[in-house]
Structure formats: C-alpha cells, structure tokens
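Example record for the data management plan.
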Amino acid sequence: MQFISVLVAAAGAYAFGAFWYMKNAKAWVKAAGIECDENGKPVNGSNPAPFIVSAIMVIIVAGMMRHIFQMAELDTILEGFMGGSGLGLFIVAPWIVTNYAYSMRPIMLTLIDGGYAVIGCTIIGVLLALF
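Corresponding structural encoding:
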C-alpha cells in the first residue's frame, strides 16, 4: 500500500506540474532562455526525455518524503500539509534560489521553479497523509 501512496502522491505533483508549467509557459520559456522555433515552440519540445526524467524524479521525491513522514510519524492531512510545504519552502526552494543566484538566472525563473517545488511538495505531503 505504501508504494501505491507514493505513486498517487507523485502523480498528483506531476499533474500539478503540467498545469503549473502550462500556465507559466511563456514566462518560463523566456526566463529559462529556451530556444524556440518560428512558431514560438521550444526547439526540442517533442523530446520525451525531460518528461520521463521528471516522472522518475517526482517518484523519488515522493518516496523519500514517505520515508521521512513515517519516521516523523506525520500522518494527518495537516501534518502532511505542514511537512510537505516545509520541505518545499525551507529545503528545496532555497536550494533552487542558491543555484539560480550563482548562475545569474532571472528572478522569474526562480519564482516559477521554486513555486512548483513548494506547491508540488505540499501536494505530495497531503496525498501521502490521505493514503
């Protein structure tokens, strides 16, 4: 059952990521400096590799969060929310900010990617608590 909860939580965060990046697509493409074709679409947009890698990584994150939550005995929705948002806001997002600061990336890219990290971890936390 725990593996299923990890997959459900990962799927929830992945689905939110699809929504988040579709909503922020133009700003993200510009901030990330992605090369686009004459139609404004990313040049390598049909390459499935980033989607596959992303799916695997979100499963790994959800699996580790499940492990941490079990060790800390976080099992209510509120605890899942607090644990997930705390990990996203105080561990993942600061790491993204640090990397982007050194690489002189635009603040918009930091906000978009950091926002996904915080909300994605929160979704994982809540879904893990529900299952």
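Summary line stored alongside the record: The chain has a mean pLDDT of 96.
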